[in-house]
TrEMBL record:
<dbReference type="Pfam" id="PF00005">
    <property type="entry name" value="ABC_tran"/>
</dbReference>
<dbReference type="InterPro" id="IPR003439">
    <property type="entry name" value="ABC_transporter-like_ATP-bd"/>
</dbReference>
<dbReference type="InterPro" id="IPR027417">
    <property type="entry name" value="P-loop_NTPase"/>
</dbReference>
<dbReference type="InterPro" id="IPR050166">
    <property type="entry name" value="ABC_transporter_ATP-bind"/>
</dbReference>
<keyword id="KW-0067">ATP-binding</keyword>
<protein>
    <submittedName>
        <fullName>ABC transporter ATP-binding protein</fullName>
    </submittedName>
</protein>
<keyword id="KW-0813">Transport</keyword>
<keyword id="KW-0547">Nucleotide-binding</keyword>
<feature type="domain" description="ABC transporter">
    <location>
        <begin position="8"/>
        <end position="241"/>
    </location>
</feature>
<dbReference type="GO" id="GO:0005524">
    <property type="term" value="F:ATP binding"/>
</dbReference>
<dbReference type="InterPro" id="IPR003593">
    <property type="entry name" value="AAA+_ATPase"/>
</dbReference>
<dbReference type="InterPro" id="IPR017871">
    <property type="entry name" value="ABC_transporter-like_CS"/>
</dbReference>
């Protein structure tokens, strides 16, 4: 059998934050892989090191031990193969630029012609349903629309992985449901690989093809769960499936166990 070559590998990752009072072991020993084209959700108790993990993966933080490899190459700093979307959309967009300008800005670092850039911006704004708002400024848009701009900016960059850190935690429930469907849609229609961190158990099961449950700090992988729900998901019918309830109850139990002292 041919050996599987995952796109992303996290091997024995460990992160200790040093402080005057001593070290905080945020990540104990974490290993997992992710294939190209996958939608992988990571869920875990509050403070278990999810953001720390994403920062290590994206090369924004240096691990204290272990390593992250992308396409067989060790990640030692920020890489164009990854684009990040954070929870605080308000702070990630430039208020003085238009929506179009915000999406275009990172593309200026790529070797593209003006026409290629324009095409990528138009295409990604269409993909997130914001073609009509291209000339607006972020502050003229709702929170959900601003997060769509951040997503458009990330996909316009054409990363190999879209990394999302609790991206919908600050929007209302209806907007959140729409944005979840947008992520699934981008994944299914464009084959975007998504690494999605959330503390919301239902969201992880609704979105993911696989859910990685993390333990409390110092973090380890508590469980990896295959989400065997139909690929065609819908906020009403999928969430009403008995299997959805079983899976979310299972993950809930795992998180409860994950919080117990070892
Ligand atoms: N810069 C830092 N210096 C010291 N300790 C830190 C630092 N950043 C995070 N920590 C600690 O590391 C642990 C993990 O933090 P992290 O923010 O990665 O967790 P999280 O799972 O993303 O949290 P949340 O669910 O609240 O978003 C926590 O105990 C936190 O207090």
């Amino acid at each position: 059998m041919a050996e599987r070559n995952p796109m992303l590998r996290v091997d024995n990752l460990r992160k200790v934050y040093e402080s005057a009072k001593g070290g905080v072991e945020a990540i104990g020993d974490l290993s997992f892989t992710m294939d190209a084209g996958e939608l992988l959700c990571i869920v875990g108790p509050s403070g278990c090191g999810k953001t720390t993990l994403l920062k290590c993966i994206a090369g924004l933080l240096r691990p204290s031990g272990g390593q992250v490899t992308m396409d067989g190459v060790r990640v030692t700093g920020p890489t164009p193969s990854m684009a990040l979307v954070f929870q605080e959309y308000g702070r990630s967009l430039y208020p003085w630029l238009t929506v179009r300008g915000n999406v275009e800005l990172p593309l200026r670092h790529k070797k593209l012609t003006r026409t290629q850039r324009a095409r990528l911006v138009t295409d990604s704004l269409e993909a997130v349903g914001l073609a009509h708002a291209a000339k607006s400024h972020p502050w003229q848009l709702s929170g959900g629309m601003q997060q769509r701009v951040a997503i458009a900016r990330a996909i316009a960059y054409e990363p190999e992985i879209l990394i999302m850190d609790e991206p919908f935690a600050a929007v209302d429930a209806q907007t959140r449901a729409d944005l979840e469907d947008l992520v699934r849609d981008l994944h299914r229609t464009r084959g975007v690989s998504v690494l999605f961190v959330t503390h919301d158990i239902d969201e992880s099961v609704y979105l993911g093809e696989r859910v990685l449950v993390l333990s409390a700090s110092p973090t380890r992988v508590q469980e990896t769960l295959d989400v065997d729900l139909p690929a065609d998901r819908d906020q009403i019918t999928t969430r009403a499936l008995p299997r959805f309830t079983e899976l979310r109850t299972h993950v809930y139990g795992q998180i409860k166990r994950a919080k117990e002292p070892r």
